[in-house]
Design a protein that fits this description.
By secondary structure, this protein is an alpha+beta fold. The chain has 1 helix and 13 strands, in the order H-E-E-E-E-E-E-E-E-E-E-E-E-E. Strands 1, 3, 4, 5, 10 and 12 form a 6-stranded antiparallel β-sheet that branches. Strands 2-13-11-6-7 form a 5-stranded antiparallel β-sheet, with no helix packed on it. The chain has a two-stranded antiparallel ribbon with strand order 8-9. The longest helix has 24 residues. The N and C termini lie far apart (57 Å). The N terminus is likely disordered.
Amino acid sequence: MRRKAVATIGAIAAVGAFGAGAGTAFAAPAERALSVEQVPNAGVTVGANGVTGGFVASILASATGPGVTQIALNTTPTEACATNLKDARVGITWRNTSTGTSGDEVFAACTDGRPSNGVAVTTGAGAVEFTTTILGKADQTFTVVPGSGSFTR
């Protein structure tokens, strides 16, 4: 009888420990906005009658998970996604100077008339330097000043 009681208590403790561990193992990390030092992209758009508008577009970065950075475009004027940048894409080349890892990504600048959610990039922890350019549809969007900057994760 004593052995059965000890085994039952041990089984209950094991299930409780497993349940508590499982609950914490799947907790989502909190997103944290990163401070980005940069020179934003600046450019013009053209149409059949010449220059139709301009834009300034900086990069937003957030730490979303271990070593993962969400990178998106922040446009000025905000209506640029409904007009000048609606079909544009963003090209970014990045390098983590702490680890040496690097990469290139291209993502939609806008979705449904608003800045897109961007792209999740595994940058790792450390100082990340980047350059960006706006890639327009056909010959209608021109980057006059490419973007560049850095952030630290």
